[in-house]
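User: what does the whole thing look like in 3D?
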Amino acid sequence: AQTVTQSQPEMSVQEAETVTLSCTYDTSESNYYLFWYKQPPSRQMILVIRQEAYKQQNATENRFSVNFQKAAKSFSLKISDSQLGDTAMYFCAFMKAQGGSEKLVFGKGTKLTVNP
Amino acid sequence: DSGVTQTPKHLITATGQRVTLRCSPRSGDLSVYWYQQSLDQGLQFLIQYYNGEERAKGNILERFSAQQFPDLHSELNLSSLELGDSALYFCASSVGTLLDSPLHFGNGTRLTVT
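Assistant: Here's the predicted 3D structure for the full assembly of 230 residues, as structure tokens:
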């Protein structure tokens, strides 16, 4: 069974600075997808970024980028130029790359606070 | 707004009771997923439906059941409720496979069992 570990329960960063959230996972699969989701106080889950395991290039979405290290099974999220609106819970998630049955396995989350 | 609608937003009930949570997916989305979010277990996948058929099952208790109707809305039924069932229940939908399309979450139903 796959597991996802987020070792930082809480983090804080000053506005405009950069912060990196850690995520490691355990799997025997060779092809899979990794995701970062954001859950603000409004509690809705919002997709931040997605990475296909077969792609060497790290995914980037505006101020959000990942550092994907497949051999180390590590998938960290870097937030640049942090904004107050980035304050939220961040969840790392794993999914096997198989059509049909699609189950996301989530980590326990990291609570990020951006301070003014 | 993700386009996924969940009702009710909040539900308070007593142990032993039965409740039904409702989800309307985004227009055009065929897949519906249910997740349970609790403080100790985090986000747990419960079940997935695709166009009315069950596609995948996760950590869903036998006291829980779900279905997806012909109009694609879905209901999650929780029976013989226990205190430990108190959680935030999310519904999510996607057009098809998550390999190609993102998962859109609703705002969740907060269930409190007293």
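In plain terms: The CA atoms of residues 39 and 87 of chain B lie 8 Å apart. The first strand of chain B starts at residue 5 and ends at 7.
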